[in-house]
């Protein structure tokens, strides 16, 4: 790189550094924060960046900056190991000074961006604006907490059930704007309400994977009690409930602050899906194997009631009373082409609606996996219920509360889950047979576009994501 270009790069970043960190203490007074290192910096050493090995692969053998090897069957370092990693990293840092004076920051940074000429582990960061590099620079500057985001963006995240990634769609443009990789067979997805993190269940590693919204990389993998399926998060973001799809059946409860699995609640049967009700008062789980709906009080995290249905429990969704409490559970069932309605207060089934054939549409009966209907959602305004049919490749739309069918839309082969934009104007549906996400104008009830995604897309969600 020519010296004048490198100088300009350095001057530009130093100016930005002054703006970002002007509130920190002087260089002589800056202390490196252990908790910030443990929770924000350390995950970078485990991240898989395209074309690079993970930092931990080399630095557990390094004679300089040395990382502790993970203990057998562990997915993250213990606090004792983290302290050793902290001490090792600190020797390569000049706290509070120009970040380009710390070898910890310059060694993995491309020379064209102001980094060292060579790093035996390769160049991991090609810009000083790389989100992961900035997280490390924040630590060197004395950060004790993650920086507040400049804005929050709405995104649709489509997990690809037969793939190793999840697709990120910008609903403003209906363009693919990113991918979350390094999670093989991702199942359920939800976002932290504050936009800081994305939670994806990992069927291969039997873990809840926490993805940093800034970097789109896994920052923590939390071991679970068995193979996970779907999940739900409370409205305050404090807890995540994870369905465990193994007998005898359970729901794992993750405390977000400590990033630990704090409790496993036993249920009647392996759990396929779990949801947090709109008021966050309950987590509602369903078992395909035993046909039980299990309801957990989120204040006590105890099972408070259950209900046996006529067949296995598939996707569920809810509508609410005027005070925001849960009114009904809408539930799809194994072998039933439609949905049932359960009154939440009386804990009884009160209605059942079967989807009729679509004239001119050939019934598709191959690969239904016992679920002819496998996707439910109530629109944000609470006025309509949307239910997908894998048999007829349509979504059926019913008005609420009278449950009258008011429309149908073709949404591809094997349509699965449904999510809406916050304003309710568009619905997004994963079509597993087309490797695509369909976008529907929810007002006009017609297709807007079809977005190619990954292999066998099923579960998807609207999330809020922090943007630096």
Report the average pLDDT across residues: 93
Name the poorly predicted regions. Answer: 1-27
Shape, per Cα inertia axes: elongated
Instruction: Kindly report the name of the CATH homologous superfamily of the largest domain.
Output: YVTN repeat-like/Quinoprotein amine dehydrogenase
Span of the ends, CA to CA: 28 Å
Question: How many individual β-strands?
Answer: 28
Number of domains: 2
The name CATH uses for the topology of the largest domain is Methylamine Dehydrogenase, Chain H
The fraction of residues in strands falls at 35-45%
Number of helices: 6
Biggest sheet character: 4 strands, antiparallel
Give Rg in angstroms: 24 Å
Main structural class: mainly beta
Q: Widest sheet: strand order? A: 3-2-1-28
Give the class-level CATH name of the largest domain: Mainly Beta
Query: Helicity level, as a percent range?
Result: 10-25%
How would you characterize this protein structure?
The chain has 468 residues and is mainly beta. It has two domains: 3-140, no CATH class; 151-467, YVTN repeat-like/Quinoprotein amine dehydrogenase (Methylamine Dehydrogenase, Chain H, 7 Propeller), CATH 2.130.10. It contains six helices and 28 strands. It has helices spanning 3-21, 34-46, 55-59, 79-90, 103-106, 131-140; strands at residues 151-160, 165-170, 175-181, 186-191, 197-202, 207-212, 218-223, 228-233, 239-244, 250-255, 260-266, 273-276, 282-286, 292-297, 302-308, 313-320, 326-333, 338-343, 348-354, 376-378, 384-389, 394-399, 405-410, 415-420, 426-431, 436-441, 446-452, 457-467. It has a four-stranded antiparallel beta sheet with strand order 3-2-1-28, with no helix packed on it. Strand 26 and strand 27 form a beta hairpin. The chain is elongated. It starts with a helix and ends with a strand. Residues 1-27 have low confidence and may be disordered.
């Amino acid at each position: 790189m020519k010296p004048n270009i490198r100088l300009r790069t350095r001057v530009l970043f130093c100016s930005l550094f002054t703006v970002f960190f002007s509130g920190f203490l002087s260089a002589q007074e800056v202390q490196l924060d252990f908790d910030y290192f443990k929770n924000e910096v350390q995950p970078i050493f485990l991240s898989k960046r395209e074309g690079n090995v993970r930092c931990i692969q080399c630095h557990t053998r390094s004679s300089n900056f040395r990382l502790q090897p993970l203990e057998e069957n562990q997915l993250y370092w213990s606090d004792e190991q983290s302290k050793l990693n902290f001490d090792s990293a600190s020797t390569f840092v000049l706290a509070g000074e120009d970040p380009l004076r710390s070898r910890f920051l310059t060694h993995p940074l491309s020379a064209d961006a102001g980094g060292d000429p060579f790093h035996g582990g390769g160049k991991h960061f090609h810009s000083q604006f790389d989100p992961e590099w900035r997280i490390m620079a924040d630590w060197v500057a004395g950060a004790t907490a993650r920086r507040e985001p400049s804005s929050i963006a709405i995104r649709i995240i489509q997990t690809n059930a037969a793939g190793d990634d999840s697709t990120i769609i910008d609903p403003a443009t209906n363009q693919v704007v990113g991918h979350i990789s390094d999670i093989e067979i991702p199942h359920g997805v939800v976002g932290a309400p504050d936009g800081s993190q994305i939670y994806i269940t990992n069927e291969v590693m039997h873990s809840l994977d926490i993805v940093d919204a800034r970097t789109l990389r896994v920052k923590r993998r939390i071991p679970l009690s068995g193979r996970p399926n779907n999940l739900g998060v409370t409205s305050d973001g404090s807890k995540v409930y994870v369905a465990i799809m193994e007998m005898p059946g359970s729901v794992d409860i993750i405390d977000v602050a400590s990033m630990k699995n704090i409790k496993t609640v036993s249920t009647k049967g392996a759990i396929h899906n779990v949801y947090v009700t709109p008021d966050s008062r309950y987590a509602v789980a369903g078992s395909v194997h035993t046909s039980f709906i299990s309801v957990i009080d989120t204040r006590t995290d105890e099972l408070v009631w259950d209900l046996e249905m006529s067949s296995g429990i598939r996707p569920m969704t809810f509508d609410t009373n005027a005070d925001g409490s849960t009114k009904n559970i809408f539930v799809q069932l194994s072998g039933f082409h439609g949905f049932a309605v359960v009154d939440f207060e009386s804990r009884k089934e009160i209605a059942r609606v079967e989807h009729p054939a679509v004239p001119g549409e050939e019934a598709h009966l191959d690969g239904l996996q016992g679920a002819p209907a496998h996707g439910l959602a109530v629109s944000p305004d609470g006025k309509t219920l949307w239910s997908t049919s894998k048999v007829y490749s349509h979504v059926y739309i019913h008005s609420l509360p009278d449950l009258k069918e008011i429309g149908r839309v073709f949404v591809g082969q094997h349509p699965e889950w449904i999510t809406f934009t916050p304003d309710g104007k568009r619905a997004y549906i994963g079509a597993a047979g087309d490797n695509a996400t369909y976008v529907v104008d929810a007002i006009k009830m017609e297709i807007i576009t079809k977005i190619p995604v990954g292999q066998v897309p099923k579960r998807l969600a609207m999330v809020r994501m922090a943007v630096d």
